[in-house]
Amino acid sequence: MLTPDEQDEFLAAIQSVRRVARQLAEKPYPANIMRIVPQIQHAVDDLFAQSNMTGKEIACRAGCSFCCHVRVEAQQPEIDYIAHQLTQLPVAELAHIVEHMRARLAEKQRLIAIDPLQKPPCVLLENQQCMIYENRPAVCRKGHSIDAQQCADGAATIPQHLDIILKAEALMQGVGAAYADVGLPADTKEFTAALFATLTTRR
């Protein structure tokens, strides 16, 4: 629970990001998202680079995918940016990603139809690693743990850097507010299904 001062600081951070992001979001589409989305993603990455100097090491490693079973949501501008980045990949690599997603989305729907409470793995996982790791959305970038064993054990609460979560959330909410200010789609969508739709519509 945040103290009143911490809540005020968090809300002030959102408004600060919103003011800066709005200047970029006002630019013509898609030039706006080509500038604003990588900036927010890099800003979240930078939070982790700074945290590595605090003594609380991030436990996440390649092949660790315990957190990749939760619903991930993103806004359409970020989805459009990620889709654009993926279309820059070699044709065969992009085709593999799209067909992998197609099969896994169908399997996910089948499993959920049997048991709506199931939490299938992300459809972008292959051999327990993210197929679009370098282009993953900000919400995935902010997810982390400082105790991998608790993740493996399915603990209800995963120890994280609260300051990273709050700063990353302020960045994301500020940018989302800027999208809404200028009329860009600001509602969130289930990321993988929306990304698949965007990629297959463009092809």
Question: Could you characterize the architecture of this molecule?
Answer:
Strand 2 (125-126) and strand 3 form a beta hairpin. The chain is mainly alpha-helical and 203 residues long. It has helices spanning 4-25, 31-51, 76-86, 91-114, 138-142, 148-152, 162-182, 191-202, and strands at residues 73-75, 125-126, 129-130, 188-190. The longest helix has 24 residues, at 91-114. It has one domain. 60% of the residues lie in helices and 5% in strands. It has eight helices and four strands. It starts with a helix and ends with a helix. The protein is globular and about 45 Å long. The strands form two sheets. It has a two-stranded antiparallel sheet with strand order 1-4.
Briefly, what is this?
Helices cover 60% and strands 5% of the residues.
